[in-house]
Amino acid sequence: QQEKEDLQEKLKLREHLSETAGKSEATPAPSKNIDLQMKQLQCKLKNSSTEITKQWTTIKSLKKQVQEKEERIWELQAKISQLERSLTMKRHLIDDLRSHLKANQENEKTSNETLESLERKMKALAEDKKTSIDSLKQRFNVAMKEKSQYEQMYHKAKDELEKKDLKLTKLESKMIETECAMIDLETAASQQLHGLARQSAQALETLQKELRLTRDKVEEFKTFVKTLTRELHRSIEELRIKIKLAKKKGQMKACTKGLSQGSLQLAASILNVSTTDLYEILEEGDDEETAKTKMEFEKDKEWLQHVQKLLEAE
């Protein structure tokens, strides 16, 4: 490429020189040497251009080869990575197989030991079987003897059963007769029971009526007793009040004998009360009698409550 550029520059210079020579009148026509040089340069240009085209083709082919080789390298690298993975997997498998082999070898050892122990047990079992067979033969002989005895007993029991079956048939016939008699008795008893039930129902109705009457009488008695006790309590209170008033009137008469009616009225006017209020003020002297009357009233109330409790009880 550099040679081509140099030649192109030289050609441009020669063309410029030829143009300048053609323009100038004083100078003669270009010489033959310049033409030859031009031709040589053109030939060189052509040769260089052909070589360049050849080199370009070789470069393209080389690039293609390089790309193909790179692709091949990538494929080979992928294969190598796969082979490395497979190698690691195979190594792991080999390690697993080795561990399995070791385990199998240990299992074989244990199985061999168990086989030996089983063979010993088999020998012991065979000896035990021989002894058990002998004992079974002896038992079989004893069982055969017992069988003959049991057969004799069976025949005897069979004869006894036949006799008992005859007795059972007789008993069943008797049972049927007794059942018929029982049914007759049950019918008669049921009829009698129905009659008794009717009589008892009628008796119950009469008893319920009597109970109602007695309850009414009891209620009447309770009301009578309540009213009687109240009346007694009221009459006793009235009598006590009358007795108290009579006593007080007697005392007042004794006190007011010396006083005249005018003096009493004068005292009432001074105190600004009526003559009756004055009598009551004069009556309030005896505290012991009032306390006694209060006690008697409380006793009367207790007696009333006691009577009511008795009536409320059953």
Automatic annotation (TrEMBL):
Listed A to Z, the keywords are: Coiled coil
Region annotation (Disordered) maps to 1-34
* One GO location term (cellular component): centriole
The coiled-coil segments of this chain are: 59-249
The organism's place on the tree of life at top rank: Eukaryota
User: Which example biological process does GO assign this protein?
Assistant: centriole-centriole cohesion
**Where do Basic and acidic residues bias regions lie?**
1-18
> Would you tell me the protein name for this molecule?
CNTLN protein
Q: Which organism is it from?
A: Origma solitaria
